[in-house]
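User: ok so my PI wants both of these folded by tonight, can you help

Assistant: No problem, let's get them done. Here's the first:
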Amino acid sequence: MPGALKNAFWNLLLAENFQKITIKQIILEAQVNRATFYKYYANKYELLDSVENDLMTEFEKMTAKAPNSLFNNGFEDKQLDNYYHQLVQYIYKNGAKFSALLNSDNGSTFINKLISTDKKVWQQKKIEKYLSVPERYALAAMIGMATNLITEWVKSDFQETPQEFSNVMRKIITPLLSNQSFLRKK
């Protein structure tokens, strides 16, 4: 039943602003009764949190595919290009959802979840041993740049194709990593 509620919520969110969506609309769209809604969610904000978390779980899986050699002074462009391509394809495939969440009144919360998810993945990769600056600054630089690029691409309604945007990411982010500006030298 949560799946029906989430699908109904997405249908509504893709059509109108989150603040205008009511629980009544959600239950009518999902064809369930009010008690069913409250069995799973306390309010529409909890449902929003749930659908954002679903999207972030998949985003985390994509981000976790970043090559481990990225900080090892030995990553290959092909590995990184493949990573950018997969990540960008995921965002593009879910573009309407990313757009609805970024453009909603709750957009800053979604961006914060995006940042937190990315940060968690990079911390799991134990990058601190490769850094010549405190980890928090390296993560702020890398994640901030990537998140802002993604946000700009989504808010521009995917003006560039996924391939073009992958190239944008590669041209902006890769030099930061390849010149070892904040990485320890081998």
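One down. Here's the second:
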Amino acid sequence: MMRVLIVGGSGYVGSLIVPGLAEAGHLVRVLDPVEPAGDVAVEWACGSALDPAALSSALAGVDAVVFTALGPRGADGDFDVRSSYETNVAAVHLTLAAAGAARVRRAVLISSISVFANVPTPVTDRLLDERSVPDSADAYGLVKRLAETVAEAAAAVHQLTVSALRIAWPTTEAAWPLWALPIFDSPAEIRCLDGTLLPSLAASDLASAVLAALDRSDPGFEAFHIVGDDGSGRCWSTAKARDLLGWQPRRR
């Protein structure tokens, strides 16, 4: 059993992870300005990862930290550039530095497959694995790339074990294999250019990936592709997660 701090645990991605960690027997503490919803019993630390005092207090006594925070979306649905840099880059830097100071040695960074460019070829149709060089230049993809750079540096400086999980289309169990987001009127389909339907990442598979990453103990930074799979082999390779974390998606 671990005591795990989830930064941004009241948000959409955090809310998909919290139940799985609690069901696995871990004690969950959430650092977020917004109180967590749902029926899962968690400890709420009201505050922001941009506040060093709140971070220090929230990290007291924990064994690991999971960073799930996202910058808010604007009225047009896109991420606000300034707040995205603050939340996805500065807050990651502060969180991992504070973790190092608190001797919290294990961290999981929720990254995104959006570190790869979606143009000119859609990311759904690119052959990618963890050896592929991230090349996204849009605001969201770029801050996710920078967050991974920060995490890799922090792992070396603070002697941390940091696992960056590049997730794609996380969704609720009920909506799978479609992709549900709070801003959507209804769950959306993800398709390749040839019309092939790609499955989203079920909450249970996301949570099990986080659990597997929390068990990782070898020091240093590693990135893993954590994506849904329909068993056809059409999706991106999750071989690295399988080999190093013992993780594979179960929803098929």
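The helical segments are 12-23, 52-59, 81-101, 139-158, 203-215, 239-245. The two ends are 29 Å apart (CA to CA). Good luck tonight!
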